[in-house]
Amino acid sequence: MTNHQQTSQIDHYAVIGNPIAHSKSPLIHTVFAQQTGQAMQYEALLVGTQAGEFAAAVQRFQASGGKGLNITVPFKQAAWALAAQRCQRAERAGAVNTLWFDDQRRCLGDNTDGVGLVRDLTQNHGGRIEGQRLLILGAGGAVRGVLEPLLDAAPAQCVIANRTVHKAETLAELFAAHGNVTASAYEALQGQSFDFIINGTSASLQGELPPLPDGLLAEDGWCYDMMYASTKTPFVRWGLAQGAACALDGLGMLVEQAAQSFYLWRGVKPDTAPVIQQVREHLG
Ligand code: ATR
User: Fold this and answer.
1) For domain 11-111+254-278, is the CATH number 3.40.50.10860?
2) Is the CA virtual torsion 273, 278, 281, 283 positive or negative?
3) Does residue 162 have its Cβ closer than 6 Å to ligand 1?
């Protein structure tokens, strides 16, 4: 067998974003591929943010024989627009983080972020969302992407709090068919209590926290930060200070959303636990 034949049997995947150097996706998917014996290669592609650059990059990738892509900030909405067909949860989210190409060369899209979050909470950590009072902080793209799977896990109540309240209201209306979901300003949370508080704001990136009143977290309540870092994020520290029974960052979600993308592409489910540990060590 020639080298060329050997290479042509390797399927190519990539993550597209800007910036992209920090992405852990190449590490995660390379370990998944080794673990499951899949002949694939996965790289990170930096793409410019000028109009049309993203679509051109996806086209080039497909033309060169690429099989599938992960999409990260700031291109998830552009990926949604580009997909010829979208899975239902991606449809309403207005954001796509996974693309692949079918036999007719059509571009298909899904959003695996919410599945990743719910799996990390419930399967990896034994949390229960059903019947619980859920508070979600933020109403940007990250929250849009996870709302449907979270609501489908049947919380008793889901409040979306955001600095710009009308954005939370828009999301509450959009997802009303999926459960008891309402919008709130941060100030209006005073005196309320929640079993689960999920941070979907980007405040941690500036080392900040949304203005949260004390007493917001119920006894034995859980906190989950969709962000992750090498040290405890400000929101994880807040949760611990408020007596959370469990305060988690989003590293598990990152690996679980990747595992669902991998499953969509390859039809094989990787074992995520050792990969979460490996990425954690890599961060440290
Ligand atoms: P992403 O794709 O990460 O969700 P985004 O769509 O820009 O990014 O949304 C960022 C979210 O974090 C928004 O909900 C934003 O609140 P506003 O809609 O009021 O802007 C929220 N956010 C960012 N910095 C924040 C801060 N310092 N305090 C509270 N909320 C913050």
Assistant:
1) yes
2) negative
3) yes
Residues 31-81 have pLDDT tens digits of 999 999 999 999 999 999 999 999 999 999 999 999 999 999 999 999 999
Q: Where in the chain is the domain with CATH 3.40.50.720?
A: 114-249
Q: How far apart are CA 33 and CA 249, in angstroms?
A: 25
The answer to whether the CB of 149 falls within 8 A of the CB of 89 is yes
Give the model's pLDDT for residue 284: 82
At 270, list the tokens: 């990787």
Q: Is 268 exposed, middle or buried (0-12, 13-18, 19+ CB in 10 A)?
A: middle
Contact call for residues 23 and 13 (beta carbons, < 8 A)? no
Q: Which of 201, 226, 238 to mutate to test the pocket of ligand 1 (most atoms within 8 A of CB)?
A: 201
**Ligand 1 touching residue 208 (CB < 6 A):** yes
The answer for residues whose C-beta is within 8 angstroms of residue 284's C-beta and 6 or more apart is 230
pLDDT digits (tens, 9 = 90+) for 171-191: 999 999 999 999 999 999 999
CA of 203 to the centre of ligand 1 (A): 6
Selected from 3.20.20.140, 3.30.230.10, 3.40.50.720, 3.30.70.120, the CATH number assigned to the domain covering 114-249 reads 3.40.50.720
d(CA 191, CA 247) in angstroms, rounded, equals 21
Residue 107 tokens, joined: 């571009």
Residue 112 to residue 98: CA distance in whole angstroms: 7
